[in-house]
Amino acid sequence: MKHFILSTLDTLFPNPKPSLTGWSTPFQLLIAILLSGNSTDKAVNSLTPRLFREAPDAFTMARLPLNTLYELIAPCGLGQRKSLYIHHLATLLLEKFHGEPPREMGLLMQLPGVGRKTASVFLSIIYQLPTFPVDTHILRLSHRWGISKKKSPLAAEKDLVAFFGDKVSPKLHLQLISYARKFCPALHHKIQHCPICLQISKHTKK
């Protein structure tokens, strides 16, 4: 079944791309990922071009008035909390890391508003490290495909890594998210239009 899943993903999404756009530096990507929490990538993509014109790096972001920052990011939700996180994050990057996000998971997670998932996504996209953060889309696939029964994303991540083994990669991570969004949505899922679920269903009935 693993071979079928991987070959199907390669056929459907041979060159998957991150859904967050509008960033051009590691700092900007980290901010975009932080903004995407409790929001949609579409909402974040609609505001990051203007945000990064105003403050393209940690130096300018740290000096942006909080009320201005809040107004720029408010459409993505939790604007007050996120504006504080971003302000403190930019300040800390300047103080400890010369304005650039660190490459180590532990150091990233010391930054305001950056949890394990945010750090993992960042490292996967920027440095192509084989981190495998499990979001709601990948968690849903792990359940429907019988790879994991765990409700915790971290616990499900361990099952997914064990299942895919040396095939774990940033590309696979993006493929899974793309597949879940297009073929395996949380609501109104039609198994006849979901090739992997359909094949697994046939296999389990044998």
Count the beta strands: 0
Largest sheet: none
Oligomer: single chain
Q: State the helicity in percent bands.
A: 55-70%
EC number: 4.2.99.18
Keywords: 4Fe-4S, DNA damage, DNA repair, DNA-binding, Glycosidase, Hydrolase, Iron, Iron-sulfur, Lyase, Metal-binding
Enzyme class: lyase
InterPro entries: DNA_glycosylase, HhH-GPD_domain, HhH_base_excis_C, Nth
What does this 3D model show about the protein?
It is built from twelve helices and no strands. With 206 residues, it is mainly alpha-helical. It has two domains: 2-16 and 132-205, Orthogonal Bundle (Endonuclease Iii, domain 2), CATH 1.10.1670.10; 26-127, Endonuclease III, domain 1, CATH 1.10.340. Helix 1 packs across helix 11 (170-183), helix 2 (26-36) runs antiparallel to helix 8 and helix 9 packs across helix 11 (170-183). The longest helix has 18 residues, at 79-96. The model has no long low-confidence stretch (mean pLDDT 95).
List keywords for this structure.
206 residues, mainly alpha, Endonuclease III, domain 1, 2 domains, elongated, metal ion binding
Offer a concise description of the structure.
This protein folds into two domains: 2-16 and 132-205, Endonuclease Iii, domain 2; 26-127, Endonuclease III, domain 1 (Orthogonal Bundle). 63% of the residues lie in helices and 0% in strands.
